[in-house]
Structures are given as C-alpha cells and as structure tokens.
C-alpha cells in the first residue's frame, strides 16, 4: 500500500446511467448539486472514522429519499403502474451481503437490505416474505401513493427524459474496509415481478476487501448475464489489474459479449477510484484519498469503452 492509501478514505456515488443530459443547464446542475450534498455527507462520516458500510448505507438512503433519482421515493413505475424496488448492500470485510427485490411498501429498501444481512441467514428476500420481514423489523413503510406523488413533484424540477437513475455508492474507509450499496426502481414499464441486477450480488453490486467495491447501472439483464460486478473484482484480485484497467476491461467486455451500454463506479482496496462508462450519460461523483469532491460535470470519465 502506498503512502496516500494509508489512513485515507475514498467514496464514489452514482445517480444512474442512460437517458439524456438535460438541455436546461439549471436542471442538470440541480441533479449534480444533490449528488454533491450526498458526497459531502459521506465525507463527514468517513472523516470521523465511520465505516465504509455505514457510509454507503447513508449515501444510498439519502439518494432514495431524493425524488430526482430512480430509487426509493423516485422509483419509476412498472408496466402495471406499480412501483417495485430492488436494493442490496455488501460488506467487503466479511463478504456478508443483504438484498431485497421487488418490494412494494418500504421507504428505504437499502435499510431493509442491511437488515436482511444483519438479522437473517439469507442474502436476498422478495415477495410476501420481504414484506413480513419489513413489518417485523419495524422499518418505515409507505403506500404506493408515496411513489406516485414523488413522481408528480419531480416533473416541475427536471425534464422527464433527464430523470433517470439507479443509485449506488462504493467506499473505502480509513481502516481499509470497502463496501458497496445499490438501489433502484428498475426501469420504466418493466414487467411486474421483474428483478434487475441491483439486488444481485456479483451482478450489480459487489464488495471484497481483497479487491474493491463496485456498483453498476444500466439495463440490469446485461449485468446479470455477464456477472459484471464480480468480474471487475476478480480482475483486481486474481489478475492483478489496477482499478482503472479492471474498469476498462469490464466495460469493454460488456460491449463485446452482450453489446450493452452501461456504467459502474469502483473503489479498489487501496482507495483508487475508477468510473467506467459506455452509456451516453453517467451522473456520478467521487472523493479519492480524502481529496476534493469531483463529478462528471467537471471531470472527464476515467474509463470509456472504445
Ligand atoms: N440496473 C437497473 C436495473 O436494471 C437499472 C439502471 O441502472 O438504470 O434494474
């Protein structure tokens, strides 16, 4: 580990890939302002010695409570006009993970995913069992109207086309532990019961102290079919690639194997951040080794597929 990696923290968050950038600069800036607020909240926690796990949980919970993103209150509706949400969280220190899929009444799916990890022997809960578990754990629940009214509210803030975005966070804390969390409403008009990559460990979300933490965004089926998040981690652990090389190779492979567009954020075990993208839009921000908060509004993306 080099000097800058010792006792330093890193964090990256995303607000989803795909869609288009808003032509209205003020609207685009608004989305990035919200991302920066979340980044700074994450920084405060990490700087106090907070864990990577608590930090990714906090960041994703904040993004779920923000109607500008397609997760939590801002989730998009499925083909039946209902809202079904997916989320997962993974601790790179223990390889423990928790996830929920297609939940319909939970305010913060990432919190329920964390409880699945902490309180059950399982990794993924869905359907009536997930609802019963949420009730038993006393997590805040909501009705479907909660999602509908957030959708209405956001129409005044940004164009429909620019409101798109699964959310995710990856972090490395000062004790060199990494964690990842991802949360989504999936995509517009998905089939009822469809589950994407975000709650699937190894597909849309992964963390291991031996490699790093990854959170993906894009059409989930492609990330599931290529095991994208775990693949990037294995490139670091087994092939000795650095964060940037692993990100580049994974995003290239996505294009080669399944002709897919997508993006992901990665923080490696030493706190180096890589952003990979071959989708037109990827809204994200990062703090590397306690440095300044940067976003894709000011800084170029660090790995593009050619
Ligand atoms: N990956 C998410 C899903 O397929 C969607 C997205 O990231 O935009 O559910």
SSE layout:
Layout: E1 10-17, H1 25-47, H2 52-64, E2 85-91, E3 96-103, H3 109-119, E4 124-126, H4 127-137, H5 144-155, E5 167-172, E6 178-184, E7 205-208, E8 212-218, H6 220-226, H7 228-237, H8 243-258, E9 262-268, E10 273-277, E11 282-287, E12 294-295, E13 303-304
Parallel strand pairs: 3-4, 10-13
Antiparallel strand pairs: 1-5, 1-11, 2-3, 2-6, 5-6, 7-8, 8-9, 9-10, 11-12
Helix pairs in contact: 1-2, 2-3, 6-8, 7-8
Q: Describe the biggest sheet?
A: 8 strands, mixed
How many individual domains? 1
Helix content: 25-40%
Structural class by secondary-structure content: alpha+beta
Residue fraction in strands:
15-25%
Task: Briefly note the CATH topology name.
Answer: Glutamine Phosphoribosylpyrophosphate, subunit 1, domain 1
Walk me through what this model shows:
The chain is an alpha+beta fold and 306 residues long. It is built from 8 helices and 13 strands. It has a single domain, classed as (Glycosyl)asparaginase (Glutamine Phosphoribosylpyrophosphate, subunit 1, domain 1). The chain is 34% helix and 24% strand. α1 runs antiparallel to α2 and α7 (228-237) packs across α8 (243-258). The longest helix is centred in the first third of the chain and has 23 residues, at 25-47. The radius of gyration is 17 Å and the shape is globular. The two termini are 31 Å apart. Mean pLDDT is 92; it is low at 301-306. It binds aspartic acid. Aspartic acid (ASP) binds next to β8.
